[in-house]
Design a protein that fits this description.
Layout: H1 4-15, E1 23-27, H2 29-36, E2 45-50, H3 56-66, H4 71-76, E3 79-84, E4 96-98, H5 100-103, E5 109-114, H6 116-126, H7 129-140, H8 146-160, H9 169-184
Parallel strand pairs: 1-5, 2-3
Antiparallel strand pairs: 4-5
């Protein structure tokens, strides 16, 4: 049985004009979790990371077909939202997992979901109630390895440390510490911005 996210992506594919090459969707956030696990929760958007070729005219057409207020969004209760490639707090390189079963059903798109532990790292940036709920659900499913999570966090932190957002990284580290303390029951990871950080 198809999940709501899969049904939505298939509906987009059915209405998309067939081209010579498949368009790559790189999906993150709770949508990525739902495409890889048995986790389901209400969501209002299928976050698609805005990387080439999902930009320009393609992005405009996708917004028109499946964005907020579109007929498809009203029908499925979900809307597609393309986010800036510079916004997410991602380890480098991000670990994108092909959604094989879904991709076999699509003629115009190829969907990759951000790896579960990379999603957890990305959620440390916003870290609202839904993010914490998503993270807790992945831990309860035994899909989060602490040592690997810390490595991926440090990779993302290094990438952000050379940007104007470097000063925010200690807050993300505090959010990681909350997860370690409250959900994983392990010692907290100590983190300080490196001397070369852009602050």
């Amino acid at each position: 049985m198809l999940t709501p996210i899969e049904s939505f992506l298939i509906a987009i594919d059915e209405q998309w004009p067939t081209g010579e090459e498949k368009i790559t969707f790189r999906v993150l956030g709770s949508t990525a979790l739902m495409l890889q696990t048995d986790y389901l929760r209400g969501t209002k958007d299928g976050d698609v990371l805005g990387v080439d070729p999902v930009s320009g005219d393609i992005a405009k057409a996708l917004h028109g077909l499946a964005g907020q207020g579109s007929a498809l969004s009203r029908q499925h209760g979900i809307f597609l939202d393309i986010v800036s490639r510079h916004t997410p707090f991602l380890a480098h390189p991000p670990n994108w997992i092909p959604v094989e079963a879904l991709n076999q059903r699509l003629k115009s798109f190829e969907v990759f979901a951000l790896d579960v532990q990379d999603v957890v790292v990305a959620k440390l940036k916003r870290f609202n109630e839904n993010d914490m709920s998503d993270i807790r659900a992945m831990i309860e499913r035994d899909l989060v390895d602490h040592a690997h999570l810390v490595r991926r966090f440090l990779s993302a932190a290094d990438c952000f440390a050379v940007t104007r957002l470097a000063k925010e990284v200690p807050t993300y580290a505090m959010n990681l510490n909350f997860i370690e303390r409250e959900y994983l029951g392990v010692p907290e990871t100590e983190y300080e911005l490196p001397d070369w950080a852009d602050v």
